[in-house]
Write a structure and sequence with these properties.
With 112 residues, the chain is mostly helical. It is 98% helix and 0% strand. The chain contains one helix and no strands. The longest helix has 110 residues, at 2-111. The protein starts with a helix and ends with a helix. 0% of the residues are buried.
């Protein structure tokens, strides 16, 4: 019976040693996984920060382009109005020239 108890104590001691080794290995793996996840989280946070900065830059560029587009549209409208005014002025000049030409012809025929 003592031999059996001694054998059971050895088995229990071996089981305890194996449990401690397994626990140490699991703690080491957990620590490595935790470190890896912290590094990955840090990289993702850095990437998110970069993406936020790029988004902010893109919004600024978009706002600048909208401003340029608005100015270009106003310039285009101004040029169209100036062209329309110039065309109207040219038509008035042509009508005046025709009126003068008709009067000149009339005066020439009256003087003959």
């Amino acid at each position: 019976l003592r031999a059996e108890v001694k054998c059971l104590h050895r088995q229990l001691a071996e089981a305890e040693r194996m449990r401690h080794e397994l626990q140490a290995r699991l703690e080491q793996e957990a620590s490595m996984a935790s470190s890896s996840l912290r590094a990955e989280l840090k990289a993702l946070q850095h990437e998110a920060e970069n993406l936020r900065a790029k988004g902010f830059d893109a919004e600024l560029i978009l706002e600048q382009e909208r401003s340029k587009s608005g100015r270009a549209q106003r310039d285009n409208d101004t040029l169209r109005a100036e062209l329309s005014d110039a065309q109207a002025h040219d038509r008035l000049k042509e009508e005046a020239a025709k009126t003068i030409e008709v009067r000149l012809v009339r005066l020439q025929t009256e003087n003959k």
